[in-house]
Amino acid sequence: MAKKNAFYAQSGGVTAVINASACGVIEACRQHRDKIGVLYAGQNGIIGALQENLIDTGKESDAAVSALRHTPGGAFGSCRYKMQDLSESTAEYERLIQVFKAHNIGYFFYNGGGDSADTCLKVSQISEKMGYPIQAIHIPKTIDNDLPLTDYSPDFGSVAKYVAVSTAEAGLDIASMAASSTKVFILEVMGRHAGWIAAAGGLAAQAVGDAPHIILFPEMPFVREQFIEKVKNTVGEKGYCVVVASEGVSYADGGLISGSLSKDAFGHQQLGGVAPALASMVKHSLGYKYHYAVADYLQRAARHLASKTDVEQAYAVGYAAVEKALQGKNAIMVTIQRGSGKTYSWSLGEAPLHRIANREKKMPRSFISRDGYGITQKARDYLSPLIAGEDYPPYRRGLPHYPALKNIRVAKRCDLS
Amino acid sequence: MAKKNAFYAQSGGVTAVINASACGVIEACRQHRDKIGVLYAGQNGIIGALQENLIDTGKESDAAVSALRHTPGGAFGSCRYKMQDLSESTAEYERLIQVFKAHNIGYFFYNGGGDSADTCLKVSQISEKMGYPIQAIHIPKTIDNDLPLTDYSPDFGSVAKYVAVSTAEAGLDIASMAASSTKVFILEVMGRHAGWIAAAGGLAAQAVGDAPHIILFPEMPFVREQFIEKVKNTVGEKGYCVVVASEGVSYADGGLISGSLSKDAFGHQQLGGVAPALASMVKHSLGYKYHYAVADYLQRAARHLASKTDVEQAYAVGYAAVEKALQGKNAIMVTIQRGSGKTYSWSLGEAPLHRIANREKKMPRSFISRDGYGITQKARDYLSPLIAGEDYPPYRRGLPHYPALKNIRVAKRCDLS
């Protein structure tokens, strides 16, 4: 069989270490030049394939590729794009495969979360039906840590580390100020449906009574009176209260606590803002001085504080995706398996995509403390190894050196009118 | 003269490196055990002196003191407390000096911003009048960088580094997403009256067109239509727009753009929130998808990303304060002087407190670009050395090791009824 080319794309929200996965894919392809031809990357994710905007990664120097390992964001661009539903039309998938065929692409590496696992599976299935079979391998990436059948999702560990460290640092700040000033600090973190990131804030507490004192999970219905009571008791006891709140916190009826309460001067709903909403409740009910932070993109882009474990695993799943493709694997996701020993260890595995796509792994109830506002030892044991180790980027003049790629596009071959 | 004791207190908002100044003070006192007796620290700042809650720093091990250099927050507690106005009453100052006298304190080291420089001066003046002269030395600390007569204020450099790095990282994030998703990212940073911190965000741009594209300074009146136009043009040109906004941004009439626009469901003014206010304007006028982050305490507590230059200088001003006291200096602030050479160099100096107290150094207009939305090369040359170098704390199990002091209080000697 003639040497096939390969395609790689990044999907969904980008992160501190998704480029480490890209680095793994590219370096593995370069190691196997005898078996894999050109590795193309999709400009702006899968949209790049649909529009035939393909980047020739072969034009990048080894040094530039190596630097991806320490550069946050999506080096080729990512996208939030929902492919057409197959029940309505297979046209988009057919177009994808047309482009892949035109560029002799036989390997499809897709780096993302649950939605992209689904896309990956369909590329494999439809290419088969179309008589141009493509091996589709999914590379897990989601800060939400909600992919099933893998011990965890790479990219989560670095967000977890950022949130844990930031909570610890802000906790020391408010502890110093509380006697005469701020009493409540609220940190809003990502996680619409699963509370993994908020849970990571709990790692900041290394002794009983340490911040954070309250964690609000999307898995636990928010009860305003109970929350206010807990804040009041914590301030009474400790002098201050640190809250880590998931952006997805909602009432029992599913209504988000953010967004629904306030309108701006033009009558528009003020979107986003669990932290300001909680702060407003605290001020209203208890009168305490508060501060709040909204970590937003900072948490997922913070390559300066990446977890070494996470960087290594993000790289490894990318590298392994290529190796598995060369072993003839198809329609699988590379997974991370945790060793059963007392000391943390991990190895790579795989899982069939039909068991991954469109399933969401929430926090087990056993990870959340009985009162619903903290994490258990079990959660701690699970989370702690994922934030272990530091992996600092190189700095120049006080700033991390995050070089950009050349991103040279190849000539189009398809008439996509 | 018999050996006098010393007193040290932290004032105002705590920072990533204020404890490095404390470390400098304590280590210098330990170096001069022949001349200085016990070094007491005020529990929760000057309130500790007023209430005679004094911590004996002599009870801390050398290792614990050394660890202060890499621990954020205020190790002894700080406070926001306004001393009584002298025109109304000298009672509080007299009480301070009564406590100092009771504990044979002859040196007063006060670590803070403009307000505490004023307090420091008054302690010197009133103690003199009361016949118990105390040498009062002010140790500069303010993330706002608004102290006069010093090249810059220690503690600003680390916030500047955090904001510059975070802006660069979030800029890479949105650049990756903009083709199909978020178009505008807004980072809200501290700085009510002076735009130094917002300006530091400008260091993230290392080439023309890099993020941030818009910086909003408190020094420049906010014009909504102009801002919206600039966002629109930037998105048109670059595909996305990164904004760094100082919390103190206000209209020409002095009205803050935050807080004034929105009310929550209970009719309470939604406090804080330049970023959400700007995001709402963008959404309303342009319809772009946005994200925003509010750095709040994270920026000033981020010891994990401290500037090495800043840590060294914070330590140095603390150490020098003790040495200057031993040289007989009084009513001065330790300053940092920049060398005139091309390569950055610095040395320590001093300035009389009567020229420091209650004066605020704003950003020179020459540091702000002509259109008011960026920084000039002059600003860049000034700011860049302040964020240079990294000084990582030690880590254990993925988290920085930030140990707490024992903070043992000494017995009270005054009847402060």
DSSP strand (E) fraction of chain A? Answer: 15-25%
Oligomer: homodimer
Q: Averaged pLDDT of chain A, please?
A: 94
CATH architecture of the largest domain in chain A: 3-Layer(aba) Sandwich
CATH C-level class of the largest domain in chain A is Alpha Beta
Overall strand count of chain A: 13
**Contiguous helical run count of chain A:** 12
What Rg of chain A, in angstroms, do the CA atoms define? 23 Å
SS class of chain A = alpha/beta
Q: What is the rounded distance between the termini of chain A? A: 32 Å
The topology string of helices and strands of chain A comes to EHEHEHHEHEHEHEHEHEHHEEHEE
Largest interface: A-B, 86 and 86 residues
Count of individual domains of chain A: 2
Strand order of the largest sheet of chain A: 3-2-1-4-5-10-11
Helix content of chain A: 25-40%
CATH topology-level fold name of the largest domain in chain A: Rossmann fold
Secondary structure topology:
The structure is a homodimer of 417-residue chains.
Chain A: E1 4-10, H1 18-31, E2 36-42, H2 46-50, E3 54-56, H3 62-68, H4 91-102, E4 105-112, H5 114-129, E5 135-140, H6 156-177, E6 184-189, H7 196-201, E7 214-216, H8 224-238, E8 241-246, H9 274-286, E9 290-294, H10 296-301, H11 308-326, E10 332-338, E11 346-352, H12 377-383, E12 395-396, E13 399-400
Parallel strand pairs in A: 1-2, 1-4, 4-5, 5-10, 6-8, 6-9, 7-8
Antiparallel strand pairs in A: 2-3, 10-11, 12-13
